[in-house]
Amino acid sequence: MSPSDLSLEGRKWERFTPTERFARTAIYLITAMAVIWSLRTIDIIPEFLYDAPEQTADLFKRMWPFDWAFYPAAIHSALIETFHIATLGTILAIVMALPLSFLAARNFTKNPILRWLAQFIFVSSRSVNSLIWALLFVAVFGPGALAGVFSIAVRSIGFVGKLFGEALEEARPGPIEALEATGAPRSMILAKGYWPQVEPAFWSIALLRWDINIRESAVLGLVGAGGIGVALDAALNNLYWDQVGLILAVIFTVVVITEIVTSYLRSRIL
Amino acid sequence: MTSTTQTSRPQAFPVNWPARLGWIALTLYALYAASTLDISWARLVRGIDQGATLLARMFPPNTAEDKLELIATGIFESLQIAVLATFFGILLSLPLGFAAARNLAPGWLSTAARGLIAVCRSFHPVIVSILFVKAVGFGALAGILALIVSTMGFVAKLFAEVVEELDPKPVEAVRATGASFLNVLVMAVMPQVMARFVGLTVYQFDSNLRNSTMVGIVGGGGIGAPLFTAYQRFDYDVVLTILLIIIALIMLCEFASARIRRVFQ
Amino acid sequence: MSAPRPMLAEPVLSVRALRKEYQPGKPVLKDISLDFAPEGVTAIIGPSGTGKSTLIRCINRLVDPTAGDILLKGENLARLTGRDLRNARRRIGMVFQEYNLVERLSVMENILSGRLGYVSPWRAFLRKFPQADIDRAFALLDAVGLGSDFATRRADKLSGGQRQRVGIARAIMQEPALILADEPTSSLDPKTSVEIMELMGEIAKTRAIPIIINIHNVELAKRYASRIVGMTGGNVVFDGPPEALEKHHLSEIYGGEDWQ
Fold first, then answer.
1. C152 touches chain A (CB under 8 A)
2. Cα Rg for chain B, rounded, in angstroms?
3. Can you tell me whether residue C21 is helix, strand or coil?
4. How far apart are CA B80 and CA B74, in angstroms?
């Protein structure tokens, strides 16, 4: 990956040190091998592909016109439930993640084992998908929105906790030391020293996660965890594509509105 | 300090009524929403009971050889889905990101590209998988296509931002040497965007890997299908095995991506 | 050094009736005509916003002129497009106020960028530049006072003066018929500014490359240029050797009269 054929009198110049070159080459090679391995061994049934265009056309033909009457009948209440799941889930996530983020922040927790424990909880929370969390919570609480709220909350802990922990670590020590010097109690230092500094980050993280959770809570119903996904699941199982189309359009609209609202609010905060 | 619209500052501590009202409103909303969702103590207590049973049935994780073999097949398929979705998704995101960058593309093109990106971003990968399962049938291909769509939604959007933040000065300087368009791209543009681009790619791979464990639930291939089957058959010890493997795999990937990012600074 | 006017040799660059309007009807350059001798340093002085930078950028067509001709050794750059324009640009080196290095690349890669008009994209991608170019780049590193230790350093690790030296080396790397320098010292401290001007003067002399410099600092201009062009409001109001530049010229250029 660099000029190697050098004439003797020429001073040598190479773009990378041998270690850098080795690392890069290794990464390129592994990437290439992974792609080739995946392409060669992946199990794709070509017979299904022949009629894909017809199937797709058929899909859209069946979707339009939408079954508008289905909106007042079932979608509206499911949509409100989805909104509640996302919002309550986000609130619950924040409640659970805040203590953990203090545990993960270097400037609050000196014990590396405790910090590692908090990080482990964060990674576990993020590694398992919300849909899979929903499966577990449906098994615990039975089908319904409660399972949805918990799966959203548990899935969000990692995101909120990690980012808020980082925000805490970035807090400037100046105002905090000033408060400590006055002998202020610990709660006072938190409320008046840290909170004003991390408040923008807090709201920004909360809004960002809420935006994501609106999207996520729309599919939880596919495994029985409440919200608009339940209606989607029913429509899919009954092959009522005109209802499916309407539900997708509703989800799209809500997601776009949420994104506009949250990005507006975030730009006001930051 | 008489105005109640003051936000709280560390040097003076006025009672912040709007903020306090906001918190009260949020609490009231939470209580109301909780009541509509039929969340009661009784259910929570029963749930904790059920949870204990669930955990008891999960432990110890099932490590029977036939199960592990099945899991390995699923995990490998999830990996393949993630690799291919990332690869092709990135390949498609590059032109899309350039087209969406307002400083390079003409207005109509960047608007159109942004619209496409917004559509890709708006639908959850699971919903997209459902549509692709209908279009191309059950199996890994539907999952790959679905994750390509979400990759495009994320990577193209951020890549457009990277391109918009491009420093035009070195580009101008290299152009002034008489370099061709491709040479300008290679020596002035690529060095500026490469590190961010690698970062985006490895991040998206992590994210695709996570999502590839889920598309199987709706028929999109990967570990999701055996997971869902085990769940429906109440084989919770198998579920736990799968979950632990997923967590381990994703931790490993996050570790590797941090390393890769460092190589490309 | 011979006085640049009257022209003894064929001019390397002739600008004829050059006009640039960013907004129609509001010319920044008002039909400028200038000839440049194939040697020596020409300093263009004048207040900011007077079109000096536009003039420089019109010459290598980073800015497209509205009207007029730019003759580089007889070839009219104002009419060129595509490959012809790129080939013409290879013969004009350029040094920038803010150095315009590719920050994330090494010093060597930045200097070799001067050869990009001659190298295929594939070779550029693999950084497989001809060994002759690499040898020359090393020699230039010494010539601009950096030394070969700098070759592998990243440009964003350098000081302003060091960056400008790399910028100059990149321009010479093109083996240009002419170097344009757009406020090369404006981002530097006074001492470094002198060093950079010293270097440019030396290059003009020893390598026989004519240099056209936009410069704010009149003292530096008088010290290092063999010819001074004074511009104000898009017009040339003074053109002559530094000795001929009098107080009243300066007040005309810099605001004896009110300029917007």
1. yes
2. 25
3. strand
4. 10
Rounded CA-CA distance B61/C14 in Å is 84
Residues A126 and A29 in one domain: no
Residues 163-202 in B contacting C (C-alpha not used; CB under 8 Å)? 167, 169-170, 172-180, 182-188, 191-192, 194-195
Are C89 and C173 in contact by the 8 Å Cβ rule? The answer is: no
> Which residues in chain B are contacts of C81 at CB distance < 8 A?
none
Count of domains in chain B?
A: 1
Residue that wins the pLDDT comparison between A223 and B105 = A223
Domain that holds residue A22: 1-49
Residues across chain B: 265
Expressed as residue numbers, the domain containing B214 is 65-263
Residues A106 and A204 in one domain: yes
pLDDT (tens digit per residue) in C71-109: 888 889 888 888 899 999 999 999 999 999 999 999 999
* Residue B263 touches partner C, C-beta closer than 8 Å: no
| ipTM, two decimals | 0.87
H or E element in which residue C33 lies: strand C26-36
DSSP, collapsed to helix, strand or coil, labels residue C31 as strand
Q: For the domain that residue B112 is a member of, what is the CATH number?
A: 1.10.3720.10
From C114, C113, C92, C93, select the one nearest C104 (Cα to Cα). C113
Please indicate, yes or no, if residue A57 is contained in any of the structural domains.
no
Q: Is the residue at A92 inside a domain?
A: yes
- Going by C-alpha positions, the residue among A11, A129, A27, A70 that lies closest to residue B246 is A129
Smallest CA–CA distance, residue B185 to chain C, in Å, is 9
Residue of C211, C193, C220 whose CA lies nearest to C13: C211
Laid out side by side, the sheet with C41-45 consists of C92-95, C178-182, C211-214, C41-45, C227-232, C235-240
Nearest-CA distance from A69 to chain B in Å? Answer: 22
The β-bridge partners of B230 are none
Residues facing C43 on adjacent strands:
C213, C228
Q: CB neighbours of A112 closer than 8 A, spacing ≥ 6?
A: none
Helix (H) or strand (E) holding C178: strand C178-182
DSSP state for residue A194 in the 8-state scheme: I
DSSP string, B84-107: HHHHHHHHHHHHHHHHH-TTTS-H
| Residue C155: φ, ψ to 5° | -60, -30
Strand order in the sheet with C67-72: C26-36, C13-23, C67-72, C75-76
Distance CA A222, CA A190 (A): 42
Name the residue type at position A18. Answer: P
pLDDT exceeds 90 at position C178:
yes
Q: Is residue A56 part of a domain?
A: no
Counted domains in chain A: 2
Place of tokens 């060129």: C80
Backbone angles phi, psi at C43, to 5 degrees: -105, 130
From CA C36, how far away is CA C43, in angstroms rounded?
11
| pLDDT digits 0-9 by tens, C115-159 | 999 999 999 998 889 989 999 999 999 989 888 888 889 999 999
